[in-house]
Amino acid sequence: MKTLAVAGLAGLLAIVVLAAYGGMDTTASRDLSKRKAVADDAGNLHVPDTYRTTYELLGSWAVAADQGQGSKQLHVVYASPGTIAAYRTDGRFPDGAVLVKEVFKAATGQMTTGTVSHAETLKGWFVMMKDSKGRHAGNKLWGDGWGWSWFDADSPSKTTSTDYKTDCQSCHVPARASDWIYVNGYPPLRR
After folding, report:
1. What is the pTM of this model?
2. What's the pLDDT tens digit per position in 29-84?
3. CATH number, domain at 138?
4. Cβ atoms within 10 A of the Cβ of 123, count?
5. Count of domains for the chain
6. Quick check: 55 and 79 in contact, CB under 8 A?
7. Are 78 and 53 in contact, with CB atoms under 8 Å apart?
8. Least reliable range by pLDDT among 11-15, 143-147, 178-182
9. Out of 23, 92, 122, 177, which could bridge 153 as a Cys pair, Cβ 3.0 to 4.6 Å?
């Protein structure tokens, strides 16, 4: 009886843990590895479903308002599990690392601490995937060691980017020496 109770409790705990981490899938036709893949075989990226709960917070940015005080956008950046530890070990992003940047329209107002900007409306996501092997050379969204794609808030699985060189890379030119990533804005990467 005691063994049955322990086994039942262990089983219940396993179900709770799996459900909490999104690992429980009752649909037999779904393949967990495909669900977790951020790029399909052709190199088409999408926003990972569970990045907010399974990825690590890398850092955030505030983009100043064009006029007046506050910010017009807030960017919150997440890294796939293990990316930060790998970067801190050898100063490079590991092959397959995924970065997800949420881009929010910001609202600014007065609070007891002063003028404060906060995230208001999600505009979309920018997703990058490290590719040191050049797996998708024929895809115009892959090159210079990364897969690059922008996704509007209403469509996390369909990019509006058509060519990383014209749609994405120009914003990253100042960070070319650090593998196209503004690493100075991400405290967890510091050793």
Report:
1. 0.80
2. 333 334 468 999 999 999 999 999 999 999 999 999 999 999 999 999 999 999 99
3. 3.50.70.20
4. 16
5. 2
6. yes
7. no
8. 11-15
9. 122
Q: What are phi and psi of 162, to 5 degrees?
A: -120, -25
Amino acid at 47: V
The parent domain of residue 19 ranges over 1-30
Residue range 71-99, pLDDT digits in tens: 999 999 999 999 999 999 999 999 999 99
pLDDT at 8: 39
AA identity, residue 154: D
Tokens 């609070």 correspond to what residue? Answer: 111
Question: From CA 118, how far away is CA 131, in angstroms rounded?
Answer: 33
Residues 6+ apart with CB under 8 A from 3: none
**What are 13's two structure tokens?**
């705990």
Give residues with Cβ within 8 angstroms of 145, minimum separation 6. 130, 131, 132, 179, 180
